[in-house]
Design brief:
Strand 1 and strand 2 (57-64) form a beta hairpin. The chain is α+β, with helices and mostly antiparallel strands and 169 residues long. It has helices at residues 5-13, 27-39, 83-96, and strands spanning 43-51, 57-64, 67-72, 75-80, 98-104, 114-123, 126-135, 141-148, 151-158. Residues 1-22 have low confidence and may be disordered. It has a nine-stranded antiparallel sheet. It contains three helices and nine strands; from the N terminus they run H-H-E-E-E-E-H-E-E-E-E-E. It starts with a helix and ends in an 11-residue tail after the last strand.
């Protein structure tokens, strides 16, 4: 199963626009806003892709200092990326998909309160059901899950102490 920008964006969109302790009136806007807030700060993502038929694959990505660092098959790689580019990608994705969003019951993540958003996405026939957990303290995504025909992608996000991997340019 190939990683998909759509899956990652959609999963992230579910948590997006929450401000600490309050929910946006439109859950789709809340998801988008949370994702926009996320790309403005350094963050790391631990992802597990679980295909319908096959072994799970783990990946790590760090977005820091104008670069995206990703660890795949035992090696770190880097490519340039700016918050403005990421926001433009999120905006294009949001405007090109059909989505239905809702706020679900709050759930803790690692013992900390989080708002939960759900989104059903149809992106040119590729459908996914997504959940995004957004920290009530920070308004940033802390977890996401995307279920697609090919399998599931689960991501956890962290923000403290995120640095570029040593020795990677």
């Amino acid at each position: 199963m190939k990683p998909s920008l759509s899956a990652a964006v959609i999963a992230g969109m579910a948590a997006a626009s929450i401000s600490a302790g309050a929910r946006a009136a439109d859950p789709c806007d809340a998801i988008f806003n949370a994702m926009v807030a996320q790309v403005k700060v350094p963050f790391a993502v631990q992802a597990t892709q679980t295909p319908v038929n096959g072994p799970a694959q783990k990946m790590e990505t760090r977005i820091v200092g104008g670069k995206s660092y990703f660890f795949v098959q035992g090696q770190w790689h880097a490519e340039p990326v700016t918050p403005d580019q990421m926001i433009a990608d999120l905006t294009e994705e949001k405007n090109s998909v059909k989505q239905t969003c809702s706020a679900a019951a709050d759930e803790p993540v690692d013992g900390k309160p989080a708002a939960v958003y759900e989104a059903h996405i149809d992106n040119q026939g590729e459908r996914s059901d997504n959940r995004l957990w957004v920290s009530k303290a920070t308004g940033l995504p802390v977890k996401s899950e995307a279920r697609m025909r090919e399998g599931t992608i689960t991501q956890t996000f962290r923000y403290d102490g995120v640095e570029a991997p040593a020795g990677v340019r």
